[in-house]
Amino acid sequence: MLVRKLQYHDGCVGGIKAMYKENAVGLPHGPVWAAVSSWWLFRQLIGGQQHIVFKEASEQFGKFVRVGPNRLLSSDLEFLRTMFSVRSPYRRPQSYTSMRLQPDKDSVLNVRDEDEHQRMRAKLANAYNGKNNPRLEATIDDHITALINMIKRKYLSTSKSFKPLDFGVASTILAVDTATELALGQPIQDTASCDTDVTGYMDGMLQSLPVMQTLVAFPWLTYLSTSRIASRLFDNVKNARYGLGCVYGFVHARTNERYGPNKVVKKDILGALVDKGLSPEKAESEALLAAMAGADPVATAVRVNLLYTLTNPRVERTLRAELQAHGLMASNEKGMPSYQTLRNLPYLSAVVKESFRIFPPYVGTMEKQAPPQGDYTPDGRFIPGGTVIGANILAILRDRSTFGDDAEVFRPERWLEASADEKVTMDRSVDLCFSSGRYTCLGRDVAIMEIFKTVVELVRTFEMAVVDPLKGWESMAFGIFVQKGMWMRFEERG
Question: What are the distances in angstroms from CA 307 to CA 120, 194, 323, 459?
Answer without folding.
Answer: 37, 19, 19, 12
